Amino acid sequence: MTTEEKVLLLAILKKEDGESLLDVLTILESSRLFTMKEGRRLVKILKQSGYLEENELTFKGNVAAKAAEEEFKL
Fold first, then answer.
1. Are 6 and 63 a contacting pair, CB within 8 Å?
2. Count of alpha carbons within 13 angstroms of residue 21, beta-carbon side
3. Residue of 20, 42, 47, 67 lying closest to 12 (CA atoms)
């Protein structure tokens, strides 16, 4: 899993109530992590890998996002 995928999972985990996946992508794009096109491609990969379903984290995605959070704390 790439660093960008991990950051995206973590951002989705930490998103505020009322924020959409598009809002998260826009925030990450404005921080220059990736372009919107690249963000959409990453979302597609995460969906195909079973981390996202209907723009929400699956159990697998939740576990991966929490693991990324621990990794980035170091």
1. no
2. 17
3. 20
Four-way CATH pick for 3-73: 1.10.10, 1.20.120, 3.40.50, 1.10.8:
1.10.10
Q: In whole angstroms, give the CA distance from residue 67 to residue 72.
A: 9
| Domain parsing of the chain, residue ranges | 3-73
Work out the angle between the directed axes of helices 3-14 and 21-30 (0-180°, nearest 10). Answer: 130
CA torsion, ordered 50, 13, 11, 54, to nearest 10 deg: 40
Banded pLDDT at 55 (limits 50, 70, 90): confident
Which token pair is 48?
A: 């195909």
Residue range 11-21: mean pLDDT, rounded: 93
> What's the pTM?
0.91
C-beta neighbour count of 19 within 10 angstroms? 14
